Amino acid sequence: MRDQASGPRVLLKRLRELMQEPLEPQERLDRIVRDIASNMVAEVCSLYVLRADSVLELYATEGLNPNAVHLAQLRLGQGLVGTIAASARPLNLSNAQEHPAFAYLPETGEEIYNSFLGVPVLRAGRTLGVLVVQNKTMRHYRDDEVEALETTAMVIAEMIATGDLARLTRPGLELDLRRPVSFTGLSFNDGVGLGHVVLHEPRIVVTNLFNEDSEEEVRRLETSLGSLRLSIDDMLERRDVAFEGEHRQVLEAYRMFANDRGWVRRLEEAIRNGLTAEAAVEKVQSDMRARMLHMTDPYLRERMSDFDDLANRLLRQLMGRGPEDVAASLPKDAIIVARSMGAAELLDYPRDKMRGLVLEDGAATSHVVIVARAMGIPVAGQMKGAVSMAENGDAIIVDGEEGVIHLRPQPDLEAAYAEKVRFRARRQEVYRELRKKPSTTKDGVQVDLLMNAGLAVDLPQLAEAGAAGIGLFRTELQFMVASTFPRAEAQEKLYRDVLEAARGKPVTFRTIDIGGDKVLPYFKGAIQEENPALGWRAIRLTLDRPGLLRTQIRALLKASGGRELKLMLPMVTELGEIAQAREIIDREVRHLSRFAHHLPTSLKLGAMLEVPSLLFQLDELMKAVDFVSVGSNDLFQFVMAVDRGNTQLANRFDTLSAPFLRVLKQIADAGVRNHTPVTLCGELAGKPISAMALIGLGFRSISMSPASIGPVKAMLTELPLDELEAFFDDNLMAPAQGLPMRALLQAFADDRSIPL
């Protein structure tokens, strides 16, 4: 009895020889289908390739009418071939004509064939075509024959992906792999970027498909699997916060997949059929992804993401590749495409080469988006499926204004966006002209436009944006991008650099705000929480771990020697927390005085108003501190009971709703009443329409990303404040005609030609 694996091995060896011969693409395809038919003792072997117009075109055949090549066509979903392409699943039929999807194409002459085996031609889970064998006799093809045809289809997928078949495509048509595709999601940061795809966790492209020694490849696979399992076990044994809760569940899923015998068995079968270990991983990964992409259950699709990540880890183990290899070979116009990523990972990429960021997940307030905004990078999020459809090097457009991306765009669309970029550049020139002009309304009222910052990379933008100062310096970002707690000396150096870069302009430092969704992998003291946003974070954490706060306060005091120090406490819930923090600050001042350190000329202590409990003690709060800063992101989240990271709720509630604007009005009025300066920092400050609302409510100091200052200032200089205040007198408590406040504000601006 013939060894069932010998057939596929012989076929793969023959294919390898064919791939190396200097043949024209059509001749190579014709010989491939002829060799497949001969090896599988089939009377017919046909290859259909998927075009960008969702039509499957016959590209080569052995056994059917050769005149039908490039003429016979089936729509996606039509006939057996179309069904295979649409479902990404093989069909193995002993009597094909009885199947309800059977469609007869007279030009092919296939009516005399009964048995049918068709498999999708897959690459990275995408269907690029269908490979079919047929026989006259009624028979059910064996599992090893199905496996052999799938393996062969993988080789053909690489031919399609490398562009070998492009010359066979008729003028005006193109293959599906190069099809332009657009995705609509959410705008996370304004701007437009044109460039080329860089996959943040790139699929490893396997070029060595055929093995010389199956047993050696199985041994390589076992060794790499062993290393992979050990690394997962090691991560799971750690007790730090990065691997608790949801992170731990992901790793548990990794461990489950890594030890799944079915997965390993399929890998070994692919190797014994003639593939290298790397090619076997790619084949099984692609098969699995294609099947799961058609599932609607969100949990199963999420598990597919886990499986993808695990398979990529295994490929890197086998090929000795690390993710750091990617950043070294970036194009000069890189647009990073990722499922999700951390703030520190974004900073690994050189800023001068980045033109945009695309995220499948994330939210406008996630930390990677905050960092991208500080760097002036357009960001589009919630782009489900973008990673699977993109290839490294694909042309891509990111429209951060509309929350849209265009992958492999048509030339006319690319030209239109290039003009849009030029228009934006001209508009930026207008904003630059405004830098030196007073930041006043049309009727002469001064409003300070400050910028948010958190890293050294932000500092040059203080002068470029024409900001009046730094209204929020997020000190925790230094902690988030580090692999260990930053030493006191490193903290002091950063704070001193910030103050020097400010050149006398005010800087407000927020004490370390970690916990909740701001995870430090090296912080051993964190706990798992069901509601981390409402839990042990910010001032609550640092008062319980005063060593953290003392070290930071001491660094800030030393860095501010001879200057004013403005210090702000995050997540204050009750006034007792301010008193406790003040006691720690006073103790550090006494300590440094004892050793004759150069101290700040003045120290102003403020509180962030983010927790609704402070709304019921506003006058007491204003008297207890030197200034107040409204953290509008968290305050909105807590007032409206909305998880700001929940994408299902991202557009459900409006930050310009009348109830929330009334809350902000109370705060602004309390500041005036108590002669306490009040600033607002958060997403609200960065959009011209919401900044206009804040100014109308009484805020005279707002802090935003550097890129937002130009558009907000352009609005401000055209704003008749007396008319806007009258508008709020009439509409805040009872909006006209019951219309949403956003619509009323837009109409107010339109009537007065205020640029929003």
Number of helices: 27
Strand order of the biggest β-sheet: 7-14-13-9-10-11-12-8
Structural class: alpha/beta
Mass-distribution shape: elongated
The N- and C-terminal alpha carbons lie at a distance of 78 Å
Helical content band? 40-55%
Q: What is the radius of gyration? A: 31 Å
Number of DSSP strands?
Answer: 22
Overall mean pLDDT: 84
How much of the sequence is in beta strands?
Answer: 15-25%
The unreliable regions are: 239-247
Describe the main β-sheet briefly: 8 strands, mixed
Write the layout of secondary structure elements.
Elements: H1 6-20, H2 25-39, E1 44-50, E2 55-62, E3 73-75, H3 79-87, E4 91-93, E5 115-123, E6 126-135, H4 143-161, E7 181-184, E8 186-189, E9 192-199, H5 214-237, H6 246-258, H7 261-272, H8 277-292, H9 298-319, H10 324-327, E10 334-338, H11 343-347, E11 354-359, H12 367-374, E12 379-381, H13 386-389, E13 395-399, E14 404-407, H14 411-434, E15 448-453, H15 461-465, E16 470-474, H16 476-480, H17 488-502, E17 507-510, H18 538-544, H19 546-559, E18 564-569, H20 575-594, E19 602-609, H21 618-624, E20 627-631, H22 632-639, H23 658-673, E21 678-681, H24 688-697, E22 701-704, H25 706-716, H26 721-731, H27 741-751
Parallel strand pairs: 9-10, 10-11, 11-12, 15-16, 15-22, 16-17, 17-18, 18-19, 19-20, 20-21, 21-22
Antiparallel strand pairs: 1-2, 1-6, 2-3, 4-5, 5-6, 7-14, 8-12, 9-13, 13-14
Helix pairs in contact: 1-2, 1-4, 5-6, 5-7, 5-9, 6-9, 7-8, 8-9, 14-25, 17-19, 18-19, 19-20, 24-25, 24-26, 24-27
Subcellular location: Cytoplasm
Family: Belongs to the PEP-utilizing enzyme family.
Pfam families: GAF, PEP-utilisers_N, PEP-utilizers, PEP-utilizers_C
